[in-house]
Amino acid sequence: MRAIYVIAHPEATHHIAKVVGGWHDSQLTPAGQAAAVRIARTLRNQIPAGAAVELFSSDLLRASQTADEVAREFGVEPILDRRLREKSYGEAEGKPQRWLDERFIPAPADGDRLGHYEGIPGSETRGECAKRVCAAAEEILARDCEHQIIVTHGFAATFVLTTWIKMPYEALGSVGFLTPSGSITTLREDDFYHNRRIIGLGDTRHLNP
């Protein structure tokens, strides 16, 4: 039984400061650091001792700090990949959230949602974010390892999951999986039918033991 564990990094300083995240390189708060420890211990309890484990992470500090806690539990080196970063918000990054809210142009209900320009110079479209995250996820999933851990961000995690279920790019304009900060989503593929399942989507029970 193959298993993938997708982690949305826990509380970071941009959450507390109410500024735009994206590629703004915020770090974990003390609460976020404690949550990262809980995430690592939860994974250690779920993955059998001696099993092969690979660890991948966004290179942004808040994600890599989370991955470092996991790495300590498993004695592995995290593989940092900038393609696992959150969606870029360009000029809005690091600015107050209200700055973005005042300029943000939401995508229409129909039409080209993947290529929609949200009104923020330098920001990624949904489609640009999806393509790079999916490319990273495809490479990770192509590797032969029984247990893989992927540390990413709340918005970006959706595209790891869509890669897992082999959803075509053209269908990604409206899909969104709820993966709160600090959550663990478990993905499993059985060895006989090779069906891929999403289990425990956005699970946060470990944050309130």
Helical/strand content category: alpha/beta
Average pLDDT works out at 97
* Oligomeric state of the chains in view: single chain
Number of domains: 1
Show unreliable segments.
none
The largest sheet has its strands arranged as 3-2-4-1-5-6
Q: Output the number of helix runs.
A: 6
**What's the CATH topology name?**
Rossmann fold
The number of distinct β-strands equals 6
Rg of Cα set = 17 Å
Q: Which CATH-level-2 architecture?
A: 3-Layer(aba) Sandwich
The rough form would be described as globular
Tell me the name of the CATH homologous superfamily.
Phosphoglycerate mutase-like
Task: Characterize this entry briefly.
This protein has 209 residues and is of the alpha/beta class.
What can you see in these coordinates?
It is a single chain. This protein has 209 residues and is of the alpha/beta class. The protein has one domain: Phosphoglycerate mutase-like (Rossmann fold, 3-Layer(aba) Sandwich). Helices cover 32% and strands 16% of the residues. It contains six helices and six strands, in the order E-H-H-E-H-E-H-H-E-H-E-E. The protein has helices at residues 13-17, 30-46, 61-74, 97-103, 126-141, 157-164; strands spanning 2-8, 53-57, 79-80, 147-152, 184-189, 196-203. Strands 3-2-4-1-5-6 form a six-stranded mixed sheet, with helices on both faces. Strand 5 (184-189) and strand 6 form a beta hairpin. It is globular and about 50 Å long. The protein starts with a strand and ends in a 6-residue tail after the last strand.
